[in-house]
Specification:
four-stranded antiparallel sheet, two-stranded parallel sheet, alpha+beta, 2 domains, 9 helices, Outer membrane efflux proteins (OEP)
Length: about 425
Amino acid sequence: MRNRNTNDGQNTGVRKSSIVNCQLSIFLFLSLASSIANSQVQSLSLDSVLSVIEKQNPMLKTYQHRAKAMNAYVAGSKSLMAPEVGGGLWMFPYRKQNYDHLGDTRQIMVSVSQTFTNPAKLKANQQYLSSRAGIEEASERVAYNQLRAQAKGAYYTWIVLAQKRKLLMESEEILGLMLKVARVRYPYNQEKLANIYKTEGRLHEVKNMQLMNDNGIEQQRTLLLQLMNLSTSANFTIDTVTIMFAPATIDTVLLSANRSDLKQLDRTISSMRLNQSFEKAQTRPDFNINFSHMISVGQGMPNQFMLLGMVTIPIAPWSAKMYKANTKAMDYEVESMKAERLAIMNEVQGMTTRMLSEINTLKKQLDNYEQRIIPTLLKNYETLMLAYEENREELPMVIDGWETLNMTRLQYLDTKQKYYEMIVSYEREIEK
């Protein structure tokens, strides 16, 4: 009886070896075919994706066109008012009269008038309009920072999902091998039918997880194509490289240099100051010149002209009140934006400090998974598998050992995804 069991074990070992060799051949063939099929698929690095987004995203183009519009406004900022031309009857009586030779005073008048805006006003207006383009450019950087964070998040999630896909394919291969071995052993009463069904059920669960994982990859691909403003039918892959993270030293200098929303506030404050200067320039006088030419109808009056110069008096109390009120209101708005700037810097410094702490904690957890947890569970699975091959262990124990290892690896990848998400959030705050 013992010899029979030995022969059965040897036969099982031979069959198992042949199955493994057959699967290995099929796997190599499929891998080669897949590599040939994907040779035409373009692989994009993260920098390439971000470059395409910066150039082609339609949301960014709206800010770029607004900045161009502001610059276009500047071209006409020093224009003068249009001249005025008029004509009419001068010194015509209401009642018809008979005029003697020298008593006809009727005249036809032609008038030309031009208003000259104070040069200080024109210069202040030009400077103010020029500053508005800088605000739109800073707003474009704020929007790009958000889009960049979305793209990084999708890219890093795709990397993790690709690693999960590889792990699930390995799990499918292992469970498939277990199922084949169990079916080979069953006719010899070396395996239970319930264990075969259990293994088959676990195999279908893994395939279900693969479907969900592939759908997640497709969603990230679609999101990246949307951000790059490309057709959803475009096909590409990513570089599944290891992400290196080096935290930066956070201080006010770094934040002021990197944060686009702070730059936007700075430019808005600067623009508000220029608008104040423009309001103050309204106290400067404007000038007007009027020339009128009178042509006599009769011979009683010679042709005449009138040259008239006028100047506004904006410092009059009833008109200066408006300029003073506007200037004072802008002072309050500037102080409000300065307080907002300080609040943002304070919030970002506290937030990034907490993020760094969480990033360091997640990194330690990943190291613990890589160096201790996963290697230990792998040894446990290998020990159970060896005992199963020697008929010293039941298949459910092997499946449980494999599932424990597999779920731990998936937890490791979930932790890695959280780690990447925290990096994306951190880099979004410092705009790296």
